[in-house]
Every structure is written in structure tokens, then in C-alpha cells.
Amino acid sequence: MAQGTILSSVHRALSIGLLALARVGQPGAVVAQQAAVQVIPWPAQVEVTGEPLTFAGAPVIAVLNPADAELVLLAHQAAAILAEPLGRPGRVAVTPGQGPVVLLSVDPAFPDTSAEAYQLIADGNGVRISARGHAGVFYALQTLRQMVRPAPPDGWTVPEARIVDRPRFSYRGLHLDVSRHFFSVTEVKRYVDLMARYKLNRFHWHLTDDQGWRIEIKRYPRLTRVGAYRKETILLKNFDPYVGDGIRHGGFYTQEQIREVVAYAAERQVTVVPEIEMPGHALAALAAYPELACTPGPFEVGTRWGVYDDVFCPTERTFAFLEGVLTEVMELFPGRYIHVGGDEVTKVRWHASEAAQAVMRREGLADEEALQSYFMRRIEAFLSAHQRRLIGWNEILQGGLPPEAAVMSWQGTSGGIAAARAGHDVIMSPGDYLYFDHYQGDPASEPLAWGGFNPLERVYRFEPVPDSLTAAEATHVLGAQANMWTEYVPTDAQLEYMVYPRALALAEVVWSPRETRNWAGFAARLPAELQALGRLGVRYRSWEPGGGVKP
Ligand code: TNX
């Protein structure tokens, strides 16, 4: 079906349903000020076609395809989404009825083939949203949420506009480390909910690390019974001499809770990418099962930050264990990518271990770097055999990697460039732009952070596709992701302070067309959205110079 046919069928549905148009009054001065469309991330095409429109009564949300259960669910989500700016929910009518209508439709012949693309038309008939996929409808609603305002006494107003939108990148990620500090299911859901508002669609859940194992694995109950708790946490950056706080810290998610989060995310068009760290950052697992290490142990769950020498030993026992873990992980997470870490693996134990050296001899591996590559190839083969794809931090490139494996470039973009040139898919996640554990202002007036300096504007200026890539190589850049490591982020309030508003800058980097990106425009649109976040109780950081307020 051509676009014109879709539109005319939408028009037909509307003219049946909209006998009484509820457009009231002339746009007044207040309404006129709202004429500018204020949306983050900025859409691909925005055309303001007239004066702001004002409608009486609550918006009636209708669907063009009432047999489509997922679309009907979206209509109910729409009622809640619009309640936020309007202060009261819209009314859901499954088929168009009377009154100003927000009409949702999914059309397999929608001209843009991306399931995330959509069109939104606001005119005297109301608002018409169409898309090829449900994701597109969801994103249109996030756009609309930012466009509507209440119009006293009981109505609403929206700029008359036509928006045609699609994401620049398919992978738009935000990460959360729940190992260094544990965050409850409630906070994790809120994290996902907030990211979905800005059309971010991949939640990278860093579930295991030296300082805590956070996912229940039924085959290996000691992972959470022992590995989910540390006896204390290092105080500040007090490495020398070490001083701990003496307070036990921990927690984990049951498989039921994981399923709950995965389903919650799916309803918001977010895919969860779980990370199970190997062969390094594994001390919590070794505390639970010391036989997986190259030395006898015993080990205790990490209480300080940084890199530990005790890593998984590359034995058959370890591979059997990890395959058991990954089997349960794959049952819980339906997404294509399974993140297996691979970063910061010291080779001290492997070098001194007879078992590790025997594997090197057996496999004809020249050195311990080649042994790590062998380790990753074994895991990759296992995941591939189960139709999943391995993703890991850029160190997995060392020593060679199967072409299907994807690379997350954290040490600058060079790992990503090398990976794209070698034909791997890449997610850009460089520390010097996209690490949200870095400072946002003068450390003297900020809460203690890891280091670095990534203020809002720097995040905004990140460009995921390096100029040095050819057009063909650039197609391997699937998107970008910001990482939230939580060594120095012990509370929900501080988490939100570190992530907002930087996640809004990230959203525009990964969604909006490169040529529309404009810092001044973003900064002008930001206050309205900060107000919206404030209404939700999000403890974001004020981004003006000197605006840091400790949470
Ligand atoms: C490096 S980024 C790490 C993390 C730390 C982070 C702190 C990466 C793959 N590894 O384990 O939390 O630095 O910024």
C-alpha cells in the first residue's frame, strides 16, 4: 500500500469517528508560546504546519486495528503516557469514537521498513500515529508526550505539526553495573522506564563482577548464597592503607525477578543484554566455587575496586560451569546478544598454572594472550550453537575473534575502528565521552566519582562513526552505549544524578540524524524535559556551570 492510501484510510476512519470535532477557541498567547516542538531526541523531520491546536476534554485514544492485542496494549500505555503532561489519563476507545482522537495504527506497508520508525500528524482532526511496527507507535507516543500540554479548563493543546521519524542507530544502549553496588528491582525498572522515554532500546545489565554475583543460577546455588555478598566495601579511595567500612553489602535477583524485568523492558521496547563476566572480574564466582580458579583458594568476594589477578582457570571444569550458567542465562534473556565481558584479564595466574599451561600446549597456543582468545572462541562457539551472538569488551579482539562476535569499544574508539575494519559489529562506548561514572563538574563540588570529566556537552558532542571509517566499514557501527559503573554510586539518588540529564544527550547522539545535531538547540529544549523529570522525582544534576548539588 502506498503512503497516500494509508493516509486516506486513516482519514476515512477519522471522518467516521470524528463527527464532533472538539477544537475550541483561537490559540491564545500562552498557547502560541508552546508552538515550538520541544522533543528529545530531536526527530528526523519536523514540520510545524500551523498554529497550536486546542482540544476540549481528555484525549480519546483509539486504534485502527482493534484485533491487534499489542496495539490495544499500546493504547492503554498511551493513556498513561499522556497522563504525565496532562495530569489525567486519556480515555481509551478501541475503535474511533467521538471526541478528539489520538489514533494509533500499525501498517505492514508503512513506507519506512524500520520497525522503530513512525509518522505523527497533529492537525484539526486530532493526532494520527502510524508505523510499521509497535516500537514505532511506542516512540511516537514518547514524542507526543513531550508535545502536549494541558489547556484549561479541561482540554489539551498540541502544536500543529507533521513528524516523520526513525532512529539513526539500531543499538541505543545504557548500561548499569549492579555488582559494585546492588540496585533493587524497583530501581532497575525505573532505570529502564526512564531510558525508554528517550528511545534508548538496549539495557546492558552488568550482573557479575569481582564484588558481587547478582543473578540466581539454579545449577550453582552458591553463586548467590556466597557470591552475592561481600563482607564490607572499601572506604572512599583508601587503597593504601586499605580501610573498609565494615558493613556487609549484597543482594541478587531471583530468576523470577529477572523475568519480570525482562518483560517490563519488552513492554517499553527495551531489550536486556545480560553480562556474565569472564575470564576476569570473576572473584565472586571463585569465592563460591574455588575449584574454578588456577590456585586452590579460598577466595572472598572483592571489597576493593580495580583488577584482581584471580580469574577463571581455562579448564574443562570451568567451561562446563560457564556453559551451565549461560544455558540458564539464555533461558532468561531472549535477546540476541549475550555479553561475556573479556576485559582487564591479567595473565599472572595462567602463567604460573600447570593446568593453564597444559591447555596452551594441547591447543598449540603461543602465549597467554592466545589462551584468552581460545577461551573466548570456546564460549563463542557455545553461544553460536544456541543461535546467540557473543559480545564483549574490546580486549576480546586480541588474538583473533570469530567474525560473528561483536565488540564494545570502551578504551576509546580505536578498538571499535579495528573491529569494524575486521568485519565485526561494533558498539561505541568510549570512556572519555560515554562513561557516566566520570565527573560532571569540578570534583570539589561533586560527589566522589571514578575520575575523568564527561559533562553533558561532551556527551552530546560524541560522534559514534569515526571519520576514518569507510562507508562500508561504518555499517558495522550498530550504535553507542553509555556505561554506568557504580563503584562510587551507592544510592538510587546518586545513580539518577549521574545518569540524568546525560542520558538525554546520549539519546540524541544515537537517535537523531547527524546533520540535525546542535548543542544550542538541545540546550534550549532541555529545561522542559528537566521539569518533566523533576515531576517524576528524578534527582537529575542541574547542568548549568556550577550547578552540581550533591544528592
Ligand atoms: C573499567 S570498562 C572497567 C570496569 C570499571 C570501570 C570504571 C570495563 C570494561 N571495565 O570494571 O568499573 O573501568 O570506570
In short:
The protein has 551 residues and is α/β, with parallel strands linked by helices. Helices cover 35% and strands 20% of the residues.
What would your notes on this structure say?
Helix 3 (69-86) links the parallel strand 3 and strand 4 (91-93). The protein starts with a helix and ends in a 16-residue tail after the last helix. The chain has 19 helices and 26 strands. It has an eight-stranded parallel β-barrel with strand order 11-12-19-20-21-22-23-26, surrounded by five helices. Residues 1-35 have low confidence and may be disordered. Helices cover 35% and strands 20% of the residues. It has 551 residues and is of the alpha/beta class. The chain has two domains: 3-165, Chitobiase/beta-hexosaminidase domain 2-like (Chitobiase, domain 2, 2-Layer Sandwich), CATH 3.30.379; 171-516, Alpha-Beta Barrel (TIM Barrel), CATH 3.20.20.80. It binds ligand TNX. Ligand TNX binds at residues 343-344, 393, 410, 435, 437, 450, 485, 487.
